[in-house]
Write a structure and sequence with these properties.
heterodimer, A: mainly alpha, B: 160 residues, mainly alpha, flat, transmembrane helix (chain A), membrane (chain A), transmembrane (chain A)
Chain lengths: 497, 160
């Protein structure tokens, strides 16, 4: 392994590759900030440039830099504008945006940068040690276990089910799951709930729904009740994290780096599930007084998904590099780039072309470090976005939400859908319906149904629930996590009486 | 009746319609080979419709005991907020959606940003126009020329 690390370092530390990783991180960060352009689209756009380099190591290093940069860029728009452009950063907005609203934008971005760095770096260490071993474990996970995992991911809604709001949070989740069934669907290949409208065949766009439920209602609330975001505390640019805060998030980062990495290893799970699971787990193991903070600007609530999604991105390289199986859309595009460069990922990659395998792993360390070094000095300037006067900022936020929806689908009808859903989101927000559960249900709905359907077909019914102990265990955990707030509320009321 | 109950009523109607489609119409044209499978395209929606109906009834009938909390904005006093501006901004978004293709990206985006700021009370025309034109130009260049995603820059009668 030492020899491999040295080969990797030698390749990754060449001047050309350092320029590639810096360039990739910068491009990824800035383009990733635009809602609608997630890592997948940015990497797809960068492929021709990467292939033109001719050197597979340099190409992969560039694309890995873009990947990490795009994820960090996506978190920035989630935290500052409540406009998550990709599913993996939705959970970051749950606490990141409230922090920004409290005048702690600089601190929120710093926590995001440090958590991302730690998640990516610890993930790369785990990748280095466990990659060959884990590839076989990942294959033991079947659709029944994936179904269980998705249901645990859904339990993240518990964070929004406090104060007698369980029914509302569950209703929003069911509504999100219903919306996910609209369109052709991958398993049945049959249009459902489209009402004969062609535009609905491909279902509702994620970006459209995310913008309509998060960014648009927030912007309209700022119109209704004017306030300049920069006025909230005067410490918008302050990056400092106190010793107590660092002590509080350190164990979260440690746990979520490991958990996120192992979830990322599972093909199909990826950063989205990892971030929701990370959020749900950290909320449920937090002391009672800290649990109430989740969803309102908790530093743990921000650090958990940020660490988990970066660690999961690293984990998703395990099946790609060791088995040649792309575990996510992004790694599928990376696989395409590798094949175009005459490199075939799989069990023999480590033996036949160790310089590529190890250069990618080393570039992950360098990429994460570069990202941290580049972004920390930029954070005060990025956070200054919130200091733009309201009269200019709100039209800009709305313009970026519209652009996000338009770029994602290249369809002007999507913009009308965005406004329509946005009005519904505003009404739901007026009535105190929590909106994140709707998006969680929508994001996980498709995967949940696919894995449920596959398990049903394999077992000829729902017997897989009790025949596969891991599935049963995961389902029991999920039900407990969702119902716990209700029981707590009932107990508190009983004590009060 | 409180707003959340009105919304629950709307959600109940949606769930009933969704359930009607899932239980009564969706399986009508199912191919024979699909009918032999343990799971049909309607299975998951059927389960969801039951959950949806039960949950919306719980909210509608107020079965869950909850503290009455006023959100960030009290919808009962909407007239005390800048409601006119909010409606105009939403209307502007609809107009932008309709005009984006025929008028072209540069013109419609500049107009959207300038009018958006104007509705919110900004009157520094030079700043508004400069910032809007620059933003429209930079975003168009980035999206179309760098990223290769087509955005018609000019009105339809001036070609692509």
């Amino acid at each position: 392994m030492f020899e491999g690390i040295l080969i990797g370092l030698q390749t990754a530390l060449s001047l050309q590759n350092i320029i590639m990783v810096i360039g990739g991180c910068l491009i990824g960060t800035f383009i990733g900030m635009l809602p609608g352009l997630g890592p997948m689209s940015i990497i797809a756009i960068m492929i021709p440039i990467a292939i033109s380099l001719g050197d597979p190591s340099a190409a992969l290093i560039l694309l890995a830099g873009v990947y990490y940069g795009a994820i960090f860029g996506g978190s920035t728009s989630s935290i500052l504008l409540n406009a998550p452009g990709v599913a993996g950063t939705v959970a970051s907005s749950f606490d990141g945006y409230p922090m920004a609203m409290q005048g702690k934008a600089g601190k929120a971005l710093t926590i995001a940068a440090i958590a991302s760095f730690a998640g990516g770096t610890i993930g790369a260490i785990l990748l280095m040690i466990f990659a060959p071993m884990l590839s076989s474990v990942a294959l033991l996970f079947h659709s029944a276990e994936y179904f269980g995992l998705m249901v645990v991911g859904l339990s993240a809604i518990a964070a929004f089910a406090g104060n007698g709001q369980v029914a509302k949070a569950l209703m929003m989740t069911v509504l999100g799951l219903m919306m996910a069934t609209v369109g052709l669907g991958s398993l049945f290949n049959m249009p459902r709930f489209t009402g004969g409208i062609m535009e609905l065949q491909s279902g509702f766009g994620f970006v459209t729904l995310a913008m309509a439920m998060f960014a648009l209602p927030e912007a309209i609330f700022l119109v209704l009740k004017p306030k300049n975001l920069g006025d909230s505390g005067g410490e918008i640019k302050d990056l400092r994290i106190s010793r107590a805060e660092a002590r509080a998030i350190a164990p979260v980062i440690g746990r979520q780096s490991v958990q996120g990495f192992f979830i990322g290893v599972l093909p199909g799970a990826g950063a989205t599930i990892a971030s929701f699971l990370g959020y749900a787990v950290e909320r449920n193991i937090a002391p009672k007084h800290e649990q109430a903070e989740f969803g309102k600007g908790s530093i743990k609530g921000l650090a958990a998904p940020e660490t988990a999604n970066n660690a999961a991105c690293t984990g998703s390289f395990v099946p790609l590099l060791t088995l040649g199986i792309p575990g996510s859309g992004t790694t599928a595009i990376l696989l395409g780039a590798l094949i175009a460069l005459n490199v075939t990922p799989g069990p023999r990659l480590m033996i036949d072309e160790p310089q590529i395998f190890w250069a990618v792993i080393m570039s992950m360390f360098i990429g994460n470090l570069v990202l941290l070094v580049l972004n920390l000095p930029l954070i005060p300037y990025i956070a200054k976005v919130l200091a733009i006067p309201r009269n200019y900022l709100i039209p800009f936020i709305l313009f970026f939400t519209l652009m996000g929806a338009y770029i994602g689908q290249n369809n002007a009808t999507e913009l009308l859908l965005l406004v329509g859903f946005g009005v519904c989101g505003i009404a739901l927000k007026f009535a105190n319906f929590p909106l994140p559960p709707l998006l969680i249900g929508f994001i996980l709905g498709g995967m949940l149904e696919d894995n449920f359907a596959r398990s049903m077909q394999l077992y000829g019914g729902i017997s897989f629930i009790w025949e596969r102990p891991m599935t049963l265990g995961l389902l029991i955990i999920a039900v407990t996590l969702v119902l716990l707030p209700s029981f707590r509320a009932m107990r508190t009321r009983a004590k009060g009486n | 009746m409180a707003l959340d109950r009105w919304i629950a009523l709307v959600l109940l109607s949606i769930c009933l319609l969704y359930g009607y489609t899932a239980w009564l119409t969706m399986d009508a044209n199912l191919a024979p080979f699909m009918q032999r499978k343990p799971i049909w395209p309607s299975t998951f929606p059927k389960v969801l419709s039951i959950f949806g109906i039960v949950l919306s009834l719980i909210i509608l009938l107020g079965l869950e005991k909850a503290e009455q909390t006023v959100g960030e904005i009290d919808y009962r006093k909407l007239h005390e907020y800048k409601l006119g501006q909010a409606i105009l901004i939403l209307g502007l978004m609809v107009v932008y959606a309709i005009c984006l293709r025929p008028i072209g990206f540069l013109g419609s985006t500049t107009a959207f940003l300038v009018l958006g700021s104007f509705i919110l009370g900004e009157r520094k025309w030079l700043v508004m126009f400069t910032v809007s034109l620059l933003t429209a130009g930079i975003i168009w260049y980035l999206v179309q020329e760098v990223l290769g995603i087509f955005l018609r820059p000019l009105p339809f009668f001036l070609g692509n």
